[in-house]
């Protein structure tokens, strides 16, 4: 039986903006046995696969998913000038009251900060001012990094629900949680709306809901780091649950033969050393999968050992 | 990152995600990598000292993984056997002449040495296939077929096993059944049991082919005791019925006082044995019971594998086997594994070193050293390593030695001054290569 | 084997099974058990080779699995 590759995970998305209006188009294609909906959100190519032959319901589900993706992007993207994240980052030392959804994300970020022993830190946004991961050899100076690190640290801000108060110069960035959260939220809406099985895939972080009619699995390919061809290196059969990939196939710097991955250690300001080039994790929700992949990356050389302790399926490419 | 209590991370993350998303997940994730083939191959050399049995074999096992934990395993063994093996007669202070198993020639063995039959030369070809799959969340089944062919031997078998997990998959109970039918068609025909070894060309005491049926039942429990310790306990029952003799083995007929073989004169114009020999006879049924226990213990990278087996049967053979292996990592990608095995058995009830001329006839008698009273030790070392492409190779070298005694109440007269039990010592050398997806 | 021994064997296995419920690990503690060197049969080909050698040279066989054999080994 020839297996069709339903979905390809691209673990290196360009960190660009998809401003409202400009590229917000929906494309729907019929494939054998399912529909494929495509759009751009959160700087990534996004995909919805619907296990149905009914174009109307596929189209409706695509609208729901894209709407949720764009809503979350508009609300939490650090590239937009007037959303809640922008207000927090421009607050210049003043407390900002947030709504329930934002509060939930901040609570989650705090839990991750503790679980990761302070390595997963959403206040590390300021570090990005020092580092631009564009494949060039422009590595920042130690001075630049020191300056950036001074403004990083969850423990330096005050989060008491519903008020968050940053110190001047601090920046928060929900990029490490946002995409996986959006996948789970969109999948939840789709599951409520229709009984058919769907695969919600935002730039490589994906979840499958329900069980396919033919009780086959969705086939997902993981692109090998460094390759730009469509032939994926590993093929994963996903029946239900989520896959998330943390990787650096396009976001890195190369200087003097040393590869600097884009995962930064907020305690030092430097990239994590000896991290695998790509980690894909399977878990019940996309949020869990994404966080485990991120925590594993932050473990650097111990990534595989960390993941082996979690009793989940994972694939590390070095 | 320091090794946090893994339970805390998994559980905390699940709880935190629950709060974040406002829902709890009801279906756990099911994700599996695209399956493929993996292969396990080995080249074996087995060689006994003193020009006895030498065996070279090629073993290949291929396993194909299918989605949803289903496996197909195919095996192939190619085996080439040469060398001499004890025919069953006792040494004597003169050379002895025997008719070869085919009945078409004679061979002579020197004085004062255990007589060995060196006319063996055989090639064996064996195939196996098995299929494993889950039957439901906690049940797994396994079904297989085996077949092997030698010049004069055909084996066909089928097996089936059912296993069920308990206690969060910490305990597995399994029940297995196997059936086999073996057919033996020795060159010249199987001899009439306890008949005399005749001259060359005289096939009057040879009959046709023979067969036997074997039934095996295995009941087993595997249990995880802790994160680093697991053990297995099995009870096996085996029943073989039909032709259980070795058609090529015989006993010396000796004088009741001196213990020396009785002379014989071949028919005029014929060649044949110069002493009397009788072909062996074993009961046509054998029931065995075994108890087997194994434990594996992980200590900081090193693994100790210890097992014990007790076997008892209605031929009155009892045996004990203790096997110990200790795997010890060397560097990042290789290991050393010393191995020690101790085996002891006592003789079958009908084991005889010789038959006494003129004594009342016996129903069963065999001088096959493998049914005798002996101890055996295996000492070995294995070295394994991972190649750059992530495949595994290993080499092992072992020394196997058997040493036994004739039952003292069977030693007659001059036999006391002769070697009465052939013993064995052999080298086992194996090279393995495992590769695949 | 005498009936008494068979009954003792059955009792031993039953005791092991019931005793087993107090031992064991949680699913996330199976990392060591998943290692290849912790499998009960680490190398099935080597196990098959050894089973065949000892079946040919001794009066006992099997124990771990089926009786093995199926050859006219001398």
Describe the fold and architecture.
- The complex is a heterotrimer of chains A (318), B (437) and C (74).
- Chain A is built from eight helices and 15 strands.
- By secondary structure, chain A is α+β, with helices and mostly antiparallel strands.
- Chain A starts with 6 loop residues before the first strand and ends with a strand.
- Chain B has a single domain, classed as monomeric porin ompg (Porin).
- Chain B is 4% helix and 55% strand.
- Chain B has one helix and 24 strands.
- In chain B, the strands form four sheets. A 16-stranded antiparallel beta barrel of chain B has the order 2-3-4-9-10-11-12-13-14-17-18-19-20-22-23-24. In chain B, strands 16-15-21 form a three-stranded mixed sheet, with no helix packed on it.
- The model of chain B has no long low-confidence stretch (mean pLDDT 92).
- Chain C has 74 residues and is mainly α.
- Chain C has a domain of 34 residues.
- Helix content of chain C is 43%, strand content 0%.
- Chain C starts with a helix and ends in a 17-residue tail after the last helix.
- Strand 11 of chain A pairs antiparallel with strand 1 of chain B.
